[in-house]
Amino acid sequence: MRGILGRRTALRSLAGVLVATLTFGVAACGGDDSAGTDAAEAGPNGVDDGSELTLWTRAPLEKQAKLLVDAYNASHKNQVKLTVVPNDDYVAKVGAAAGSSGLPDLFAADIVYVPNWVNQGLFQDLSKNIDGLGFKDSINKGHLSAGTVDGKAHVLPFVLDLSMLFWNKQLFKEAGLDPEKAPATLEEYAAAAKKVQALKKDGVYGTAAGLNCGGCLVFTWFPSIWAGGGEVLSADGKSSELAGDTAQKVYSTWQDLWKSGAVLPSSSGETGPTWTAAFTEGKVGLMFYPATLLSSTPFDAGVAGIPGPGGGASTFVGGDGIGVSKDSKKAAQAWNFLSWMMSEEAQVEVLAKNKDVVSRSDLAGNKYAAADPRLVTINEVAGKGDTPVAMNFQQAFNAPNSPWLTLVRNQVLEGKTGDLQKDNEEITAVLGQ
Amino acid sequence: MRRGRQALLGWLYATPTAVFVVALFAIPLLLVIKMSVSRWPLLTGDQGINAPANFEKAVDHRFFTDSVVFTIKYTVLATVLLLVLGLGLALLVQESSRWNNLLRASFLIPSALGLASASLLFYVFYSPYASPLKPLMDSWGFTFLGSPNAALFSTTFLIVWRYAGFYMVLMLVGLQGIPADVFEAARSDGATRWQTFWRVTMPLLRPTLALTTVLCVTGSLLAFEQFYILTKGGPDNSTITVVQLIYSVAFQGQNDLGVAAAISVIVLVALVVINALQLRAFRSEES
């Protein structure tokens, strides 16, 4: 904490030599003050001189982060040390480190927090380096623009996580649905969920959702609204448009699904940790699900874009952006990792090989994608998706007591549909703070 | 000369304690007070004094009143249950007989578990997805954390399970501190069991009751882990305690350490007042 300095002087004057020795021990852990090298001076590929770099990321992207870091460490002199932090503690950890100038060299951030964190100066300006990349125009636009402030790019896409409609082909077959055809509209989605529910198989439900998890609902329901032609936020990210007609249709469809009993009952209290578990175990017919879990879904699942009321397809281009922290003294070495991460070698041979989405559109048709048509679908829908940008995104949507969660629960679970305008204004009030 | 040396020695003896009190209590306390009167966002640090804006924001927070009301409700519930159960269990295992060592141990074992670990244990136990009680929940159409009251009672059950043994031990120490001849005298005067309990045991147990009440009330007002892990303040923001509000203002969205510190200072003042009142109440009855 920032208070260590003040603590040090106060203590020394209070209790003499003994205490001073003790606090010198504390201060010694605080890191050095030597001036570092600028990322831009180091050339297009940065410096690979055997430095040790630190990298933080949050738990949901652990698999992808580990693959990338292991592949980098195996082929470079620089060594990256990865720290994976539980999702719920990540902001607190980064915040505490930022206040005490103790951020790691590289750290990833949920893309919806990136605009705020860049604005607070947590990332170094990488615009010169990024401009030097020959494929700059094919880097995912949503991620790049989330990290751009005043025309200066600070953040590159680390791992893209798209929300997609996944369905269990086996359960579809049993329910008499075409296992090769995705529901084209939200109405068809609801009908399919009810059909799977009508199988009355023990422990099997039509669909599931994280109904007590603001982040999950943003990730899965915003695309439904976009696909139906609606909007969720104003262009400046300061006011909420979640009371619009399309949004209302989404809520009422889910309210009807919930009332019909076709939604996994534990969904109503699901705060996030296990929101995908039932589908992964083959106990849910279809759901809006993160594409990063494609490689760990053990059975035959179909994949399509998320449909809206009346049709369409969209996705939430989520995941994490990554940049060089303000406290890094090894920016040139850190850039070496970032430029490698964006290379064809890393994107195709690490990410695509693991059935993950590449963050460069010019690599979308790579050989691994060609082998699995579901990856082609995901890459195609990625172009139609969106990443909302707002400064107070966390407080308005992701926080456990966010007004967005109140709105959804009132609309879907509590039957307080009359509160829509009031709840929507509460979101706008938080966004505008 | 000698007196000077003694004084120096005295200071030396007191230094270790003083160092810890200053480093671990006084300085953090001053830091929190400073934070509470400063603009202090989580990510950018100290931005200068802005008193009393943080306190206004704290009191105006949309969950401030709700969290205070809920915390008091929870405190009353937990304190009554824990003290009654603690005393009841202590009376049960007070006599030494063959089974009592086993009983005492089994009541005390949950106290050996950390509160966070116990909460995680119950998180799985209550989970409508992974719980061994899943068939029961399915057939009753009921979930342990699904409605505001169910969440409150389920969490209180965890706390009672975790702490009843601890309060039993405290009560037991108090009970065994009462001289046996008092009971003998009561019996030879022809007092019934009930009379002995109300007229002899309870008055002589007052210091223990004061201690346990203060401990229990303070602990419950500062409740955090159990709710953070089990309910995250849900469902529908019905189980937000004051400390959880502090945490969420600091780290979950608003990211404002200044306002969080302001609420902390308010809680601190409230605790000092409440504890002073409790101690006074117990003392005045004594005299």
- What percentage of amino acids of chain A are in beta strands? 5-15%
Q: In total, how many domains does the architecture of chain A comprise?
A: 2
Task: Round the mean pLDDT of chain B to the nearest integer and report it.
Answer: 90
Low-confidence stretches of chain B: none
Note the total helix count of chain B: 13
Q: Which CATH first-tier class of the largest domain in chain A would you pick?
A: Alpha Beta
Shape designation of chain A: globular
By CATH's scheme, which homologous superfamily of the largest domain in chain A applies? Periplasmic binding protein-like II
Helix content of chain B: over 70%
**Rg of chain A, Cα atoms, Å:** 23 Å
Separate helix tally of chain A: 18
What gap, in angstroms, lies between the N and C termini of chain B? 46 Å
Q: Look up the CATH topology of the domain at 64-239 in chain B.
A: MetI-like fold
| Largest sheet features of chain B | none
Identify low-pLDDT runs of chain A. 1-36
* CATH class assignment of the domain at 64-239 in chain B: Mainly Alpha
- Which percent band covers the strand fraction of chain B? under 5%
Shape of chain B: globular
The CATH architecture of the domain at 64-239 in chain B would be Orthogonal Bundle
Rounded Rg of chain B: 24 Å
Named CATH topology of the largest domain in chain A: D-Maltodextrin-Binding Protein, domain 2
